[in-house]
Amino acid sequence: MKIMQVEKTLVSTNRVAELGHRPLLVVREKVGGGRQVAIDAIGCIPGDWVLCVGSSAAREAAGSKDFPSDLTIVGIIDHWQVEEKA
Amino acid sequence: MKIMQVEKTLVSTNRVAELGHRPLLVVREKVGGGRQVAIDAIGCIPGDWVLCVGSSAAREAAGSKDFPSDLTIVGIIDHWQVEEKA
Amino acid sequence: MKIMQVEKTLVSTNRVAELGHRPLLVVREKVGGGRQVAIDAIGCIPGDWVLCVGSSAAREAAGSKDFPSDLTIVGIIDHWQVEEKA
Amino acid sequence: MKIMQVEKTLVSTNRVAELGHRPLLVVREKVGGGRQVAIDAIGCIPGDWVLCVGSSAAREAAGSKDFPSDLTIVGIIDHWQVEEKA
Amino acid sequence: MKIMQVEKTLVSTNRVAELGHRPLLVVREKVGGGRQVAIDAIGCIPGDWVLCVGSSAAREAAGSKDFPSDLTIVGIIDHWQVEEKA
Q1: Pair type for strands C71-76 and C35-40
Q2: Do the beta carbons of residue B60 and residue A66 sit within 8 Å?
Q3: Which of E51, E43, E39, E42 is CA-nearest to residue E5?
Q4: Alpha carbons E43 and B48: distance in angstroms, whole number
Q5: What is the DSSP string of E6-74?
Q6: Is there a contact between E26 and E9 (Cβ–Cβ < 8 Å)?
Q7: C30 CB-contact burial (10 Å; exposed 0-12 / middle 13-18 / buried 19+)
Q8: In chain B, positions 42-71, which contact chain A (CB-CB < 8 Å)?
Q9: What residue segments make up the domains of chain C, in order of their start?
Q10: Please, which chains are in contact with E (at least 3 CB pairs closer than 8 A)?
């Protein structure tokens, strides 16, 4: 799993039906690192350091084997020091 | 999921039957970044910033568990600032 | 899917039975890029620019869910400009 | 599989139910390399050099096909020389 | 599939039961490249240039859908020139 920080919500009105209305969050691996988009399975807010699961496990973690996710937030990290950039 | 921009359509006449006649789009992660090819499950045009799902989720997102895709466009991003290069 | 160019055939006499006698092709993402090996599901010749699918989709694209491939050529690109290095 | 070293335990109180109470360990590929988080299927302590499996195999290795892991520790390496940084 | 060279055997006494007693080999993509660990499904010796399959195909190639491998050696390359570093 990757340690990432939540940046903001992503708005995508035109999306495949399988995504439903699940929130899409822009996350990044470290300050200045590349952005990706994750499905939120927990309820996070911008600034949270979170645990993201990828690969085929991201589908089930998002709620069902059919959910089209390759990156899902599965936990909020209690304490993460910024100087410990992942 | 990755944030990518649609560049153009890719023409591949000689292809495996499982791909059908689905449009193939050349996408790239950022200006100057490497190109990949994605299956369009939404209906995009060149210039659109889109959400691409990879891994095993790309198959189902393209329409069925048997579809041979490892990168499928599942949403169009409403607003994406170029300066926010993914 | 990745845009790659076919370089040559790879000879591997001692291989697992599941690979059968399917041709193995050395492919590379761009001139000077790293080499990988793909299963040919189309019928390519050296120099062709091809579309390669990875992840779990590579198995089915190679002919069956049990085929041990993680990179399968699923289409030949009609026209690809060398200056558009993928 | 990747050769990684265990750094410490990660605390995540707010997590998806599927993760249960399984320990989460921060691991890194080499001194100074990026950190990831793995599920411990063996019983490791900080400092151990371990074998981590990713991809879809990480789920089953963590105990069941439904476990949301993309990185699971499946073995402790008996002897690993630091100068052989993985 | 990746072209890798076998370096040596890896000893891991404390491992998950699903790995059985299958040999674990340290492999690397090129001289000086990073090391990974692969399951040997062929019978290789140090120095051999081999074909390694990853992703979900690595499980079946290692003998069964339940085998926890994400990198399995599926063929020995007959001739590989060192100057053709993969």
Answers
A1: parallel
A2: yes
A3: E51
A4: 50
A5: EEEE---SEE-GGGTT--EEEEESSTTSPEEEEEESS---TT-EEEEEETTHHHHHTTSTT---SEEEE
A6: yes
A7: middle
A8: 42-43, 51, 53-58, 60-61
A9: 2-79
A10: C, D
User: In this structure, which topology does domain D2-12+20-81 adopt according to CATH?
Assistant: OB fold (Dihydrolipoamide Acetyltransferase, E2P) (2.40.50)
Closest among A66, A60, C75 to B39, alpha carbons compared: C75
The separation between CA E9 and the C-alpha centre of its own chain, rounded to angstroms, equals 10
Does E22 contact chain C (CB < 8 Å)? no
pLDDT truncated to tens, each residue of chain B (86 aa)? 999 999 999 999 999 999 999 999 999 998 777 899 999 999 999 999 999 999 999 999 998 899 999 999 999 999 877 655 44
Q: What span, in angstroms and rounded, lies between the C-alpha atoms of B59 and B22? A: 13
Q: Which CATH architecture has domain E2-11+22-84?
A: Beta Barrel (2.40)
Is the domain A2-13+21-84 a CATH 2.40.50.220 member? yes
Per-residue pLDDT of chain C (86 residues; tens, 9 = 90+): 999 999 999 999 999 999 999 999 999 998 777 899 999 999 999 999 999 999 999 999 998 899 999 999 999 999 887 655 44
Searching chain C, which residue's CA lies closest to the CA of residue B39? C1
Q: What is the CATH number of domain C2-79?
A: 2.40.50.220
What is the complex's ipTM, to 2 decimals?
0.90
Report whether A38 contacts A73 (CB < 8 A). yes
- Closest to C71 in 3D by CA, of C29, C11, C13, C33: C29
The pLDDT confidence band at residue D81, using thresholds 50, 70 and 90, is confident
C10 touches chain E (CB under 8 A): yes
For the residues E47-66, what does the mean pLDDT come to? 95
What residues in E contact C24, CB-CB < 8 Å? 1, 51, 75
B55 interaction partners in chain C (CB closer than 8 Å)? 55-56
pLDDT at E45 over 80: yes
Fold of B2-11+19-84: OB fold (Dihydrolipoamide Acetyltransferase, E2P) (2.40.50)
